[in-house]
Design a protein that fits this description.
heterodimer, A: Aldehyde Oxidoreductase, domain 4, Aldehyde Oxidoreductase, domain 3, Aldehyde Oxidoreductase, domain 4, seven-stranded mixed beta sheet, six-stranded mixed beta sheet, globular, B: alpha+beta, five-stranded mixed beta sheet, 5 helices
């Protein structure tokens, strides 16, 4: 990397430029875009049954609704859209293709069976109520436990036992080494099912322009993947005639990093009717049909020595992927993610896993912030806590004895994943010192019951696998998720800088952070840089914004392109000033002679040469233009790390959990903008608190989703999350040596750490009374019943006394 | 095709009077967004839960997704578009900017309208009062940490301006 720039905008708390229009209410989200006058609005008829055969569909009454133009069913789409199939190459993987609209059979509540096209949204919604569908019910399989049990009904006839994919791994001579373990424990961890629930539901609008072309606006995190996949699936759609534009996106969290049927249908109908087609989702559809996440079972057996050092781990992992493989991640991303990421910051020497992707009559699962990591680290940290308990060693000490140490770096874990740099020991020690951990242990040497509350402290010691590059996706069988990202940088004729990045931001502040990076590497102020994203017509191909990748992959591409452009600026300046290019320094839009700073030339003047706009001539060895496009393929993964420590107080009667203290030390390598990094951590923590304490997608035994509204699917409010007085965030900066710029991702660390630490804290509070906390969510009713059951089997004298005191007080 | 029955609604939005012929069932949120083009008010759930569509009706906050436009005939509505001038953000907006109290920005207009009403009634709130005031507006990005901070900062800067 060059050292010719002395700019340091990266690392500064640079205010967000996107705030100005968002705060004024001028952000244009999908439903805010101007609709062409002849727009047709879509509304979908959703299956009310989890598993049923469609016998007949009568659309005649719906067609009578004023404003309704057409009502289409599955048959109409057979010739319009190919079955949706993610491109997965993995042994044992069975495709579970989905049709854009169900044809013969529906396989989850919410699966689309008909679509209404109408002149207004109100008319479209009136009409869907009038579509009569006759169903013949089929046996539904809903839960993971049911799906893998003997004799369970199957979701797809060709998927025996509902196992759509099985993966396995064993390190050398695993069985022998596992059998030789000195101490041993088994545990089963269960993680529930959650919804990402961005505040903006999804939506899309396909607009025909210039005859055969379509501009397709969609609320997505992956514009280039969506474009390619639409061109592959919609018959008659040419990729070069399809421009995907991402408007302002009101939160994504992975839920919008999927290809959805409505997107394919909107483009297909736009081609068919040559009219603008618009669809905006409502919240019920969001909860019923947007990909869900987690829903895992971890069966684990660990062996360890007398010091609590892990000697082997055997994992059997089941993940519920729903009725169909989501695209492009194929439903296996949670499965392979949980099995492959669980190793975390620990020096596990011997490891074997078997993992299963299980189909059920529920909505497809897909990527959601953290992907499998909140669940697998909840399990791994649970193992650490149980080792500590079994050997009577402090849980933080057990973790310290197992982590990868500075002298081990770079570390290659048992699965072959390289951790280039990290600060596992430093962060754990800092956390012990700064979180009040030892003080808590001193305050509660024995019983955890005090003033009617059980007190506990928990640790989430985690790594975050970020910025996955091409080889990282191939190893998981994903062929449609490239791994590379691209950037084009152009210094315009007036010297201002345009940066085009292959990503699509949903609140992460890219217009600010990429400007900081470009400014540093080109030698201008960030104010001179404008960032463009989310438009396939202007940005180079790339993978998109998810899985904590933008800083690394987009940032890397920006650095590469900026270096190329700045090298050319330097050569042009050297020619103008008659010095060597190495003697040129770029700063504030000026190229200056390092050895004689009084001599300089403005970029604007060099641009006249580059674009042939003045009297001067381009040096004969140069070509016109001042721009570069570069693609960056980052390392397999770049590993960030953090420790979360949470102190809780649990009401002994009603089971409510209060967070008394929350400490985080986070290391995402070189920080681009500390304000934005903290914001990412805050948001992740809130989602993690929701995931552990309140959020859960609940299907009944018939496969009805019984909480498909925000009244019933509880999102954390301002009263549910840790407040400033209890939250401390420290940063350690250990730059990556593998990724450009030294960046590591930060989008998911907050949720990963909080789920693990909060579960660990509740375990810590209650293990003394014999309650085994090994599942989330942990709603008050669940915790209260754990406490009651524990007391009944082994009455804790102190608990009894406290209860008597409380009863007396009341 | 039978014709759709419409009715006349007249109301004042951000100081400007509007008269429109609408379907009686048109939601206030849709009226603001699609009849008069004020897209700053967002619809996050349409069930009155998330608070993204919060506006002020005669200076009191309300969910615009739960009101029909004709229900608020002749009322004065204020939306997020009423807060800033072309030159200057409202002090609450400025505080949100300085505190990094928004990420995707979708919930922000509703939160700003809630905050404006709250600070009018309680110019010097503590953090607990702020949290309670905000608990009917959901945000999925920020974890509320910086929103609480921003509301406190806005209160301070508005009180200071008042005392000048």
């Amino acid at each position: 990397m060059t050292t010719h720039q002395s700019n340091d905008f990266v690392g500064q708390r640079f205010p967000r430029r996107e705030d100005q229009y968002l705060l004024r209410g001028e952000g244009l989200y999908l439903d805010d875009l101007a609709e062409p006058h002849n727009t047709l609005h879509l509304a979908f008829v959703l299956s009310p049954h989890a598993h049923a055969r469609i016998l007949s569909i009568d659309v005649s009454e719906a067609l009578e609704v004023p404003g309704v133009v057409a009502v289409l069913t599955g048959e109409d789409f057979v010739s319009l859209i190919k079955p949706i199939r993610p491109n997965i190459e993995m042994p044992t993987y069975l495709y579970t293709d989905r049709l854009a609209l169900a044809l013969d059979v529906v396989r989850f509540v919410g699966e689309q069976v008909a679509v209404v096209l109408a002149e207004s949204k109100y008319a479209a919604h009136d009409a869907i109520e009038l579509v009569q569908v006759e169903y013949e019910l089929m046996p539904a399989v809903v839960s993971l436990e049911q799906a893998i049990s003997e004799g369970s009904p199957v979701v797809h006839e060709h998927v025996a036992g509902n196992i759509a994919f099985r993966g396995e791994f064993a390190s050398d001579d695993f069985a022998t080494k596992h059998a030789a373990g000195k101490y041993r424990l088994r545990e089963r961890f269960r993680h529930g099912r959650v919804s990402g629930s961005a505040m903006e539901p999804r939506g899309c609008m396909a607009v025909p322009i210039r005859g055969e072309e379509i501009t397709f606006y969609t609320s997505t995190q992956i514009p280039h993947i969506v474009r390619t996949e639409i061109a592959k699936h919609v018959i008659g759609c040419s990729e070069s005639a399809l421009r995907v534009v991402v408007p302002e996106v009101g939160g994504g969290f992975g839920v919008k990093a999927q290809l959805y049927t409505e997107e394919l249908i909107s483009v297909a109908l736009c081609l068919k009717y040559r009219r603008p087609i618009k669809w905006v989702q409502d919240r019920r559809e969001d909860l019923l049909t947007n990909t869900h996440a987690r829903d895992h079972i971890y069966e684990m057996e660990a062996t360890f020595d007398e010091r609590g050092v892990l000697t082997s781990l055997e994992l059997e992992l089941y993940t519920n992927i729903g009725a169909y493989s989501s695209s492009p991640f194929g439903g296996t991303i949670e499965t392979t993610g949980g099995a492959r990421q669980i190793v975390g910051p620990y020096k596990l020497p011997n490891y074997a896993y078997r993992c299963y992707a299980v189909t059920t009559n529920t909505c497809a699962s897909g990527v959601y912030r953290g992907v499998a990591q909140p669940a697998c680290f909840m399990a791994m940290e649970g193992i650490m806590d149980r080792i500590a308990r079994q050997l009577n060693i402090d849980p933080l000490e057990v973790r310290l004895r197992n982590i990868v140490l500075p002298g081990d770096m770079p570390w290659v874990n048992v699965l072959g994943v390289r951790y280039d740099t990290g600060s596992y020991q430093k962060c754990l020690e800092l956390a012990r010192e700064r979180s009040g951990y030892e003080d808590f242990r001193r305050r509660f040497p024995g019983s955890r019951l005090k003033d009617g509350k059980y007190h506990g402290i928990g640790i989430g010691n985690m790594v975050e696998l970020t910025g996955t590059g091409a080889p990282g996706w191939r190893v998981r069988g994903l062929q449609a998720v490239s791994g590379i990202d691209g950037a084009t940088i152009r210094v315009e004729p007036t010297g201002k800088v345009s940066v085009f990045v292959s990503q699509a931001n949903a609140g992460q502040g890219h217009f600010t952070t990429f400007a900081q990076i470009a400014a540093d590497h080109i030698g201008v102020r960030p104010e001179a840089v404008t960032v463009y994203e989310g438009d396939t017509a202007s940005t180079p191909f790339g993978t998109g914004t998810f899985a904590s990748r933008s800083a690394i992959t987009g940032g890397g591409a920006v650095i590469q392109a900026a270096e190329k452009v700045s090298n050319k600026i330097r050569r042009l300046a050297a020619h103008e000033l008659q010095v060597e290019p190495n003697d040129i320094v770029l700063q504030d839009g000026r190229a200056r002679v390092a050895s004689d700073p009084s001599r300089f030339v403005d970029f604007e003047k060099l641009c006249l040469l580059a674009y042939s706009l003045g009297k001067g001539a381009l040096p004969p060895t140069e070509v016109y233009g001042l721009e570069a496009t570069e693609y960056y393929d980052p390392p397999v993964v770049t590993v960030a790390n953090a420790v979360h420590i949470i102190e809780v107080a649990i009401d002994a009667i009603d089971g409510r959990v209060a967070i008394e203290n929350y400490y985080v030390v986070h290391d995402c390598g070189k920080v681009i903008n500390p304000m934005i990094v903290d914001g990412q951590i805050h948001g992740g923590i809130a989602q993690g608190v929701g995931e552990v304490l309140m959020e859960e997608i609940v299907y009944d035994e018939h496969g009805q989703l019984i909480n498909a509204s925000l009244l019933d699917y509880l999102l954390p409010t301002a009263l549910d999350v840790p407040d400033l007085s209890t939250l401390t965030i420290d940063h350690v900066e250990t730059p990556s040596i593998d990724s450009l710029g030294g960046f590591k991702g930060v989008g998911e660390g907050g949720i990963i750490g909080s789920v693990a630490a909060l579960t660990s804290a509740i375990y810590d509070a209650l293990e003394g009374i014999g309650a085994n906390v090994n599942s989330v969510p942990l709603r008050p009713s669940h915790i209260a019943s754990l406490i009651r059951a524990a007391r009944q089997s082994a009455p804790d004298p102190e608990a009894t006394r406290a209860k008597q005191e409380l009863t007396a007080a009341h | 095709m039978s014709s759709i029955e419409t009715t006349t609604v007249e109301l004042v939005v951000n100081g400007k009077r509007y008269k429109r012929q609408i379907e009686p069932r048109l939601l206030l949120a849709d009226f603001l967004r699609h009849e008069i083009g004020l897209k700053g008010t967002h619809i996050g759930c349409a069930h009155g839960v998330c608070g993204a569509c919060t506006v002020q009706i005669d200076d009191k906050t309300a969910r615009s997704c739960l009101h029909f436009a004709i229900d608020v005939q002749n009322s004065e509505i204020k939306t997020v578009e009423s807060l800033a001038t072309p030159e200057k953000l409202h002090p609450i907006q400025q505080a949100f900017h300085e505190s990094h109290a928004l990420q995707c920005g979708f919930c922000t207009p509703g939160i700003l309208m809630t905050t404006e009403e709250f600070l009018r009634g309680n110019p010097n709130p503590d953090d607990d009062e702020i949290r309670k005031a905000l608990c009917n507006n959901m945000c999925r990005c920020t974890g509320y940490v910086n929103i609480v901070k921003a509301v406190g900062l806005a209160a301070t800067s508005m009180s200071a301006a008042e005392n000048e």
